[in-house]
Amino acid sequence: MFYHGYDNYLRHAYPYDELKPQSCKGMDTWGSFSLTLIDSLDTLLIMGNKTEFARVVKLLTDTANFDIDINVSVFETNIRIVGGLLSAHLLAHKAGLELEDNWPCDGPLLRLAVDVADRLLPAFNTRTNLPFGTVNLRHGVPHGETTVTNAATCGTLIVEFGTLSVLTGVSKYMDVAMKSISALWERRSSIGLVGNHIDSNSGSWTGREAGIGGGIDSYFEYLVKGSLLVDDPELMDMFKEYNKSIYKYLNYADWYIWADMMRGNVVLPIFQSLEAFWPGLQVLVGNTTQAAKTFRNYYSVWKRLGFIPESYAITDNIPYNGRNEYPLRPELIESAWYLYVATKDPIYLEAGMEITKSINRTRTKCGYATVKNVMTHEFEDRMESFFLAETTKYLYLLFDTENFINNDGKSGVSYKSKNGKTCILNSGSYIFNTEAHPIDKGAFDCCHSFETKKKSSKMPVLQCEANTFSSRLATANAMI
């Protein structure tokens, strides 16, 4: 599945961003920087293809140029490009690549990630510390750019930018990420919810719909993952408070609906496909029982329709408001993986097999096509980069239980950097960004450390050697 999409991208679409799987052509979408190539780089290594990984790394280091006069999404560029480059940088040793003397604190892929991040930084020059949603890679924030952005853009930075600061020793990346998170936290409503759109200039909410889906979702995800990554219990405390309000106002019979952030009344009784990440996040904080119940609801939609539409009317059991498409999203598979790792219940393997069968029905001669309508199963000529970065990766990890990513902490490799510091690599201390790019936190001990402001918390500070997937679950069980 992965190689049918990847090989055809190289054959028909590279150097464009994405493959058009029906017409066998390429197109630029998010930035005109060979997006699919970068987004799928760590998947190659996870699937054991060291040769192709090495070839692409050399290609990128020789040819990648982000000094482009083009407007890009801060959110998408961060999670797909910066995240993809950082993950590949930290996995380079597994491919047998020649490492620079100061690796993992330096290296060509890290320098590319720094270059891209520096080009995103002008977006944060606002009165509120909340970023613009769009930036020009050469000129900064475009003239006349709207100040309206969404909560996910503001809150989905700490994994990538925190990693940049720890590896490089430059605090500005973590600083802007933490300030943006704090700005959102300070603007939560009196009942503990946030909306989906906010004005980055005034700090006023322009969209008061509160949910766990599009426009908000990864903000909650990064509070948990950021806490684990940079050892900041204050971020986990924030999530715990949000989680209480989410369960009180948004949870209905193990579905999650949309409500007014100020009053808590229901505004949209719908399920969005992006929300299917939530069971996986609940597993990560130790709430496996609730995660299983919600997964069961979400998977029932897949079984009924063959795919999950972008929006689904819970009470009517049909796609909502014409949002019929399924663009090969990974979130339900992601949650199946987390649940299987935590429970070893074969029901999640069975779900993975059924999902694989469904996705195989989207196969074309040149890739896999977006499902334009889950009711009629007609296709659209697009294969988003996350299909190779996330969807195929999570499916692979679900079934490849011996993959190095699934390491339970029983093994690791001691690495001594030329700066004299030692770190433990490959010990299972991987934190996935929201584009499924794994960051090996074990490498952090070879570089720099930053003290984030910490308040009292029941959560112990996690050390690298105790930060495997299994130990994070155990720690969270005692915390939530």
Could you characterize the architecture of this molecule?
This protein is of the alpha+beta class. 43% of the residues lie in helices and 14% in strands. The chain contains 17 helices and 23 strands. The protein has a 3-stranded antiparallel beta sheet with strand order 5-6-7. A 3-stranded antiparallel beta sheet has the order 8-11-12, with no helix packed on it. Strands 13-14-15 form a 3-stranded antiparallel beta sheet, with no helix packed on it. The longest helix has 18 residues, at 74-91. It is globular. The model is unreliable at 454-467 and 474-480 (pLDDT under 50).
Please state the average pLDDT score.
94
Structure summary, number of beta strands: 23
Helical run tally: 17
| Major β-sheet strand ordering | 5-6-7
Topology:
Elements: H1 2-13, E1 18-20, E2 25-27, H2 35-39, H3 41-46, H4 50-63, E3 71-73, H5 74-91, H6 108-120, E4 134-136, E5 148-150, H7 151-155, H8 158-168, H9 172-186, E6 197-199, E7 205-207, E8 209-210, H10 217-230, H11 233-249, E9 251-252, E10 255-256, E11 258-260, E12 266-268, E13 270-272, H12 278-284, H13 288-305, E14 311-313, E15 318-319, H14 331-343, H15 347-360, E16 363-364, E17 367-368, E18 370-373, E19 378-380, H16 386-399, E20 413-416, E21 422-425, E22 430-432, E23 438-440, H17 469-477
Helix pairs in contact: 5-6, 5-8, 8-9, 8-10, 10-11, 12-13, 12-14, 13-14, 14-15, 14-16
